[in-house]
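Cross-posting from the chemistry board since nobody answered there.

I work mostly on the small-molecule side, so proteins are not my area. We synthesized zinc ion and want a rough idea of how it might sit in this target. Sequence and SMILES are below. Is it possible to get a predicted 3D structure of the two together?
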Amino acid sequence: MKLKKSLSILLLGVLVVACSTNPFTGKQTLALVPNSQILPMAFQQYNEFLSENKVVTGTAEANMVKNVGQKIASAAERYLTANGYAGYLTEYRWEYNLVNSPEVNAWCMPGGKIVVYTGILPITKDEAGLAAVMGHEVAHALANHGQQRMSAGQLQQLGAVAGNIALSGDAQNQQIFNTAYGLGSNLGVMLPFSRSHEIEADHIGLILMAIAGYDPIVSAELWQRMQAQESGNKPPEFLSTHPSSATRIQNIRTWAPEARAEARKFGVTTFKK
Ligand SMILES: [Zn+2]
């Protein structure tokens, strides 16, 4: 019954496959799941996640996560508005929470729902390092990378080349959603972002952190610290979805001056390290 329903929705989907424009690259990307379906689901999943985990409030670290998050969000809004995408974030409901967990991880769901785990803080080290991680994660969300992963997951599941599926909130759809957004290591299946998505998120993330007033070169140092963790017996969760590499660090060094130049257009003249 369920398969039949999925297939009929799939056939319908073939007719309405949509594209959305990535505001940073101008590229058309395949968006098989519209925001109107994704965002309510993201908000629900986010609240569920918060209710099942230990949210840290009122500490200096929790406040730092909120502060840096707000600055990154405001940088995203300023950048998009300046580039002709003023309405792009209308449906975003930014939220920044620190969760008490040894897991080395951080993510941003579509709609601006961010979680930073306490386990990543020793590696981010300071405010600028945290801005590098949050800038990168927000960039994935803005560029709809999760959405594209979600679509890929669905296609895989349905064994089709194009399709759409109604997100009714049942277990199967939630599983696809969680896999696509790299939520919860307990699921065991976390897809890494593709190399092109990683490059895009690094590039956009540097611009965001620079506009937020942080020196983008800190990002190179952060990824070096990440890489140093990789040699341990169990690499951090964050690295299983965002593998570090010499190429990544080199790219960041090359792009840092360009990101600072971009930020100067927004009146940012000093960059916190
Ligand atoms: Zn990434």
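Reply from a structural biologist on the board:
Welcome over. Reading the output above for you: The radius of gyration is 18 Å. Residues 1-17, 155-169, 184-190 have pLDDT under 50 and may be disordered. Happy to explain the token format if needed.
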